[in-house]
Amino acid sequence: MIPSTLRNLGLAGLLMFGMAISVARADKWPQWRGPNFNGSSAAKGLPEKLDSSTQAWAVDLPGTGSGTPIVWQDRIFLTCLDQKSSKLLAVCLSRKDGSVLWSKQVGLGYQKNDRNDTASPSAITDGKLVWFYYGTGDLAAFDLDGNQKWARNIQKEYGPFNIQWIYASSPLFYDGKLYLQVLQRDVPPRRGAATSGPPAESYLLALDPVTGKDLWRQTRPNEAVAESKESYATPIPYTNDGHTEILLIGGDCVTAHDSQTGKELWRCGGWNPRKMNSWRVVSSVVATEGLVFACPPKGGAVFAIKDGGSGDVTATNVAWKNPDLSSDAAVPLVYKDHLYVLNGDRPKTLYCVDPKTGKVSWSVTMDGRSVLRSSPTGADNKIYVMNEAGDAWVLSADESKILSKSSLGGKNNHATIAVVDGQVFVRAGESGAKLYAFK
């Protein structure tokens, strides 16, 4: 029998270890949806206002983009498109003052519309390497000092992206693997485009992050038609009952894949029974407590899927569906045991939802004509959101209360706000061509 004093020491050690992990994560925003893959962080000491009173610095970036600022200790990583030269840039800034530590060209490719450009995917880092991916299919790995380790182009190897509004999915780094999804049409989206060979496949690709070599490629079939086959979402990992899945959404369904092999485990759909041809998906899924939350496009009702099962679980695993909740672009936030759903269109409202039942606890509506396309970020009992015009709100995570509103200006702003201990990073300006730091 273990003496109580030793048990207490062991418990204290575990608590200290857990606190150390929490603190370490709070000092990093390593991927698009943060350290927990759900938009939340344990960061503390964050400002209630994002204006001149809390601004630490602001810098012009060497290009536009919608990628979220990726933060690791004293460095910030960003994907950028230099619109004058069409260069796709991998950029590293100093967290202290925003100065450029290094900038490397990864490829060439100018494409832009009001929704995104070829620098829309976010970078990723594990603290040893940093990976940059672009809508052209260019993918490259660097060490933290800017030395390139490998590079490849996914389109050149596996065929053009059949995406109407420019490919924009971010990669996922998880458990020693780099995951890319390409959920696309089986034919080019533009009339008159040359076609040859068999129809294009949608797929999930796993890479060795150190070498860039393929580990496996899993095809991901669906019965959607035309644009409804397209997805701009990002793969999300979820561990439940000791088993890790990679979750994808697009092609009129959510699928769960074995993280080691890519094998499809289950799928759930049902939101497009009439097979409408323009229901592309933008919002990634998010998961907690054995539930996977999906946001169908075009005002579709947010719903929860019970994780697990095999094959098509559409008829058996839908836990709840709330027709009063929708999100066409913003990914829901999981924070403080709540689900926060942002409807960025009309009404522009953040809903605090019980994840187990789908019932709304409270909501808060934001003014302004511009829509919100970036996803909400939660930390330090606050929620940060921004619209396309660069208006930024800080909201209470506990009640229907707006703590502050400020305007950073610009247009076509889609980057999600990143937070680390004591600091908030916002990419805004004209199509995300400026980076602000607040503390």
Description:
With 439 residues, the chain is mainly beta. It has a domain at 62-338 and 354-367: 7 Propeller (Methylamine Dehydrogenase, Chain H). 6% of the residues lie in helices and 40% in strands. The chain has two helices and 35 strands. The strands form eight sheets. Strands 1-3-4-5-6 form a five-stranded antiparallel sheet. Strands 2, 32, 33, 34 and 35 form a five-stranded mixed sheet that branches. A hairpin with a 3-residue loop joins strand 34 and strand 35 (434-438). It is globular.
The radius of gyration computed from the alpha-carbon positions, rounded to a whole number of angstroms, is 21 Å
What is the number of beta strands? 35
Strand order of the largest sheet: 1-3-4-5-6
Q: How much strand content do the residues show?
A: 35-45%
Note the overall shape. globular
CATH H level, superfamily name of the domain at 62-338 and 354-367: YVTN repeat-like/Quinoprotein amine dehydrogenase
Instruction: Look at the structure and give the CATH class of the domain at 62-338 and 354-367.
Output: Mainly Beta
Kindly report how far apart the N and C termini lie.
50 Å
Structural class: mainly beta
Per the CATH scheme, the topology name of the domain at 62-338 and 354-367 is Methylamine Dehydrogenase, Chain H
Helix count, per DSSP?
2
The helix content, as a percent range, equals under 10%
Mean pLDDT: 93
CATH architectural category of the domain at 62-338 and 354-367: 7 Propeller
Major beta sheet summary? 5 strands, antiparallel
Oligomerization state:
single chain
> Which stretches are poorly predicted, pLDDT < 50 over at least 5 residues?
1-24
